[in-house]
Amino acid sequence: MGGDGTLCRAARDFAPYDIPLLGINLGGLGFLTEIPISQYKEGLARVLREKYKTEKRLMLEASIFRDKKKIETSLALNDIVISERGSPRIINLRTFVSEEFVTTYSADGLVISTPTGSTAYSLSAGGPVVHPNLDVIVLSPICAHTLAVRPLIISQTDEIKVIIEPPSDKVLLTVDGQIGFELEKKDIIRVKKSSQEATLIRLKERFFFQRLQSKLGWTGISYKTFRQTPEV
């Protein structure tokens, strides 16, 4: 029980054990949760009767290297964010995808997100909305100091490498907005698809775009008005 943050935390904790998670919303947005608290009795009853489906969600694994030694590793359901620690300042992030140089981002930071996380911080940073069934990774720079940099969508098989470039010296890596690791100049961050996945319980048919409307204010013709099966 909780909000999206609680579900992210549970996903990281239980992914190694492949335990299905039922999100019961006690928080605010509840984009990832399955049912509101008012329906928890009915929801739990269906789970006990095994009247549910499961949905796999891609997770990321981030590792921090310092002086060629791995010092930290963490899973993420939503995103890995590299940003300035403290006062907002531009940092320099030399970025590679599968060892091919992409660019050095001069920006407030970089969001590396899963499809699940594409509707979180990445969306606020100008990244695309990605359907959760797709196996891709999204790179979204935060307030890049150039007109030539745009978000990237790469394959799930790619590995991202980010090097903290001088003069950046107060940098933070954040996992799902919850766990923070302080970084130093020349630290190397490697992010890839994790071998572990989050397993979410689904009790009824879900419409992803309906959820975008109801939770994130997706505009246009209302879903109820337009939701009709077209004649063939």
Explain what the structure shows:
This protein has 232 residues and is α+β, with helices and mostly antiparallel strands. Strand 6 (91-97) and strand 7 (100-107) form a beta hairpin. Strands 4-3-14-11-6-7 form a 6-stranded antiparallel sheet, with helices on one face. A 6-stranded antiparallel sheet has the order 10-9-8-5-12-13. A two-stranded parallel ribbon has the order 1-2. The model has no long low-confidence stretch (mean pLDDT 89). The radius of gyration is 19 Å and the shape is elongated. The chain has helices at residues 4-14, 40-48, 121-124, 208-216, 223-226; strands at 24-25, 35-36, 53-66, 69-76, 79-84, 91-97, 100-107, 109-113, 136-142, 152-155, 160-165, 171-175, 179-183, 188-202. It folds into 2 domains: 4-57 and 197-218, Rossmann fold, CATH 3.40.50.10330; 60-195, Probable inorganic polyphosphate/atp-NAD kinase, domain 2 (Tumour Suppressor Smad4, Sandwich). The N and C termini lie far apart (43 Å).
